Amino acid sequence: MPHHKIHPTAIISPECVLGRNVEVGPFTRIHANVTIGHNSIIDSNCEIGYPATSIAGKKRLVIGPNALVRSHSIFYEGSEFGPGLKTGHRVTVRECTKAGRDFQIGTLSDIQGHCEIGDFVRFHSNVHIGQYSVIKNCVWIFPYVILTNDPHPPSCIMMGVTVEDYAAIATMSVILPGVTIGEGALVGAHSSVADNVRPNTVVTGAPAKFLCETSKIKLRNGSGHSAYPWREHFHRGYPQELVSRWLDELKT
User: Fold this and answer.
1) Hey, what domains does the chain have and what are their CATH numbers?
2) Most buried among 137, 166, 214, 225, using CB within 10 Å?
């Protein structure tokens, strides 16, 4: 395959579509119903486009350009990812997930499929995302967070969690079915959230209760400045044009 770097142990279906300068590592398998964008790297021991025809129909797995999928990750067919996807190791993504630009998925995270995920979303390690979750733009989800979807398990009723723009969910929190986390909200560590969380508020505890407005939390750097909205001071990894837009919006 010209302009590609394919390890000789990789198994590549002749029916898949690889963009320019794609690199595929040892013992990785890429199935037929797959499109991988230019300048992407699929590391070793991955399975890309795992068959899920009974659920996904004939929808392709589309991974946009400049992706980095690290070793031992599995992506089912029928999902679509924008440019700049990055994963840790041993990630699993089930069918019918649609994600935007610069999505990052931490090691050992698990997306159960039929999810909608916006641009610049960040998952740390060991995150579990239940089916029918809707996660908007620039959301942070920290280690061992679980988004659930069954209101009285086991049942066939699915009520996905919704997480609005700029929200952050701290480590080891559980968000119960059908809950909406409002824009810019913060869920404190070890929380169990059964009720909707209002925008720009902090909830914490099990069951989670309102603590304060996010603006009341101060940065622990001696400056006395508010920690939230976090996009006033945290810009690492975001493109300059997006940061400039944030700062203009926050002035108004």
Assistant:
1) 5-214 (2.160.10.10)
2) 166
